[in-house]
Design a protein that fits this description.
Elements lengths: L2 E2 L2 H8 L8 E9 L7 H11 L8 E4 L9 E4 L5 H4 E10 L1 H12 L10 E9 L3 E9 L11 H4 L23 H14 L1 H12 L2 H12 L1 H5 L20 E9 H11 L3 H19 L10 E10 L11 E13 L6 H19 L4 H4 L7 H12 L9 E5 L8 E2 L2 E9 L8 E8 L2 E9 L6 H16 L4
Parallel strand pairs: 5-6, 9-11, 11-14
Antiparallel strand pairs: 1-4, 2-7, 2-13, 3-4, 6-7, 8-15, 9-10, 12-13, 14-15
Length: 468
């Protein structure tokens, strides 16, 4: 039987346009150890770990006439050096230069004729550091059979180069005749699906995706808010092909202190900080905010089986991360009241569907932030139109150091994709005592994400300094 893409996976290919590439990314900064950490060492590490990720050596093959959804097939011309690339900043490279490079890399679509992922080894950072920038298409990472590449190359302890010979031999690509025969064979059992696939191929891409997602039941099962348009504002704009990126590093203990003083969860505090930053940013844009003004955030949450007694991969419902719509009270001038409003709204979601709160998600063994962010992006893809203003995906990470070979990871910034009408997407993760924000914005509509990044730190200080 062919390894056919699911309806949801195929939808991410259908909706992809030049201005909205459908990949999730990450930026990891490493300290170069005395043993050395160079491009060749990274290449060897990735080559060894690909043994556990067969999907990363497969490409998408379309079926003639669109009689069925595309299939995964081994890339007979797989070239690891094409996928793991080398780049450099003019030494000593700054964070701003790294983030500008990230913006350029993330704006480019992945090659559909090859496996849908890329990694860039970036040298030249100040302080004898290097960075790893990863891009993985949303159609690949389902959290079940395939995880994000960044998850697999990291370990909790430093390790030597792993010996072993790569014995992978690609299977031949299926012929056009075989693809058609397989599709016809399946059509005997599900004849209506052939008609739908042909119709879908002729439709507008967005309409196609809506139909596929409806069939998958994603929208109907995931929405937990009134289906009304999101508030108008600068966050909703038809995105261009350019991107801007900014990263922000904050102290995890600051969030713990706010939580201890005012209640809620760490995730609630993160959302309250972002609400304060967005309030300040909108003011800098000349937007007049009424006391009841809101910004609607799409906040994906992992969902547990109602019968599960503990947090574990088996307890997750099909490794599902569902999208929830939360109205952030940007019009409220008091930071503590903003936090209380958010905590109340989030508690309703968590209680209603056994959603995994951010502080509990750390107990879901085997799910690194990179994979959880990919699943969050997939959940966000089930909503279209103007139902939300901004995507905020928070996935806590480990509070102990992680290593690629002997190189210790010092920083990590998620890069979430933009939808067609959303000019800003925010990824959040915690790691080794810090909380990291990755702000991915449209270069035209949201050119000032660096300023918004500074406002995140200011909003956290405001919450820290508020006493009731």
């Amino acid at each position: 039987m062919p390894d056919r893409l699911s309806a949801l996976d195929a939808s991410f290919l259908y909706v992809e346009e030049p201005a909205t590439p459908m990949h999730v990314g990450g930026v990891a900064v490493f300290e170069r150890p005395r043993e050395g950490f160079d491009y060749d060492r990274l290449l060897a590490l990735v080559a060894h770990r690909l043994t556990y990720l067969p999907r990363y050596r497969q490409r998408v093959v379309s079926v003639p006439g669109h009689l069925a959804r595309p299939v995964w097939a081994d890339d007979v011309d797989f070239d690891l050096n094409y996928h793991v690339r080398r780049s450099a900043l003019p030494a000593p490279g700054s964070e701003e230069q790294l983030f500008e490079l990230v913006a350029r890399l993330m704006s480019r679509r992945l090659d559909p004729e090859r496996p849908l992922w890329e990694a860039y080894f970036v040298e030249g950072l100040a302080g004898d550091r290097v960075a790893l920038v990863t891009k993985t298409h949303q159609s690949m990472v389902d959290g079940i059979g395939t995880v994000e590449l960044g998850q697999l190359i990291l370990d909790t302890v430093p390790h030597e180069r792993e010996p072993g010979e790569d014995t992978w031999v690609p299977r031949r690509l299926p012929t056009r005749a075989q693809l058609v025969l397989d599709a016809v064979g399946e059509a005997v059992q599900r004849p209506g699906e052939v008609v739908e696939n042909v119709r879908s191929a002729a439709r507008d891409a967005a309409a196609t995706a809506d139909k596929v997602l409806d069939a998958a039941g994603e929208v109907a099962s995931a929405l937990r808010a009134v289906l009304r348009p999101a508030p108008d504002g600068p966050l909703n704009a038809r995105v261009s092909g350019g991107r801007v990126f900014a990263g922000v590093r904050t102290d995890l203990d600051a969030y713990r202190g706010v939580r201890a003083r005012h209640g809620g969860t760490i995730n609630d505090v993160v959302l309250a900080v972002l609400t304060g930053a967005l309030r300040e940013w909108l003011g800098s844009r000349g937007v007049t905010l009424s006391p009841t003004a809101t910004v609607r955030a799409l906040v994906p949450l992992a969902v547990l089986d109602p019968d599960a007694t503990e947090f574990s991969p088996a307890g997750l419902v099909n490794n599902r991360v569902e999208p929830y719509l939360v109205d952030l009270p940007v019009g409220e001038p008091d930071p503590v009241l903003r936090l209380q409003h958010i905590a109340h709204a989030m508690a309703e979601h968590v209680d209603a569907e056994r959603s995994v709160a951010a502080r509990a998600m750390l107990k879901v063994g085997g799910f690194a932030p990179a994979t959880m962010h990919s699943l969050a992006a997939r959940a966000a893809g089930s909503l279209s139109g103007r139902l939300f203003n901004v995507l905020i995906a928070n996935s806590p990470g480990p509070q102990r150091p992680l290593y690629a070979g002997h190189a210790r990871m010092a920083e990590i910034y998620p890069v979430m994709p933009l939808a067609r009408d959303q000019a800003l997407a925010i990824g959040v993760t915690s790691y080794h005592g810090d909380v990291y924000f990755g702000l991915n914005g449209d270069r035209k509509a949201c050119h000032d994400v660096a300023a918004l990044g500074g406002m995140i730190s200011e909003a956290l200080e405001e919450l820290e300094g508020t006493h009731w």
